Predict the structure.
Amino acid sequence: MTERINEDWLQSLGGTTIDEVAVAELREVLRRGLCRALAGRVAADDGFIEDVTQEGTVKVLGGLATFRGDSRFTTWAVTIAVRVAFTELRRARWRDVSLDRLVEDAPTRTPAAPPDDAPSTDARQVVLAEMHRVIETGLTDRQRQALVAEFKGMPQAEIAAQMGLTRNGLYKLTHDARQNLKRGLEAAGINGDEVREAFDL
């Protein structure tokens, strides 16, 4: 493989005529970097590495204008490919998880009210219990699905895909859900300061 400096990479990959040899070398750099970064991960088999190498190559070529030269070009390129890989691994983890199942598994038990001198952990339980109550009774089914999935850590892209929404549509849905949750907590006498105090935010 040819040893290239940053300027060589940019000239070979970003000119009016793309150097296919340079593209092949870039793919090999990304493949090796991904193999190192994902070593030991069961889901990162040869097929996965190949797919992410291809997607990473496309992203690097499409983002050449954003390379500022603060590092070696190959370091920058491998970082992009690794980000792509971890995004895909997160999506794969949630791909077979049903939103309905997440909502069913969400805790709903309400703890008993603590005494007035109870420590902050009891205050936290009260806030959590009220949050669960509002989520169960104060949100629409779709708002509840989206918000619970978000709380559980499901990626936004996967939530949107399962709900048949665009990213903007999901943003509006979860925004409205949070507003309803906030109003429900305030109606129960719990304000933002109390939430922050209970969770040491």
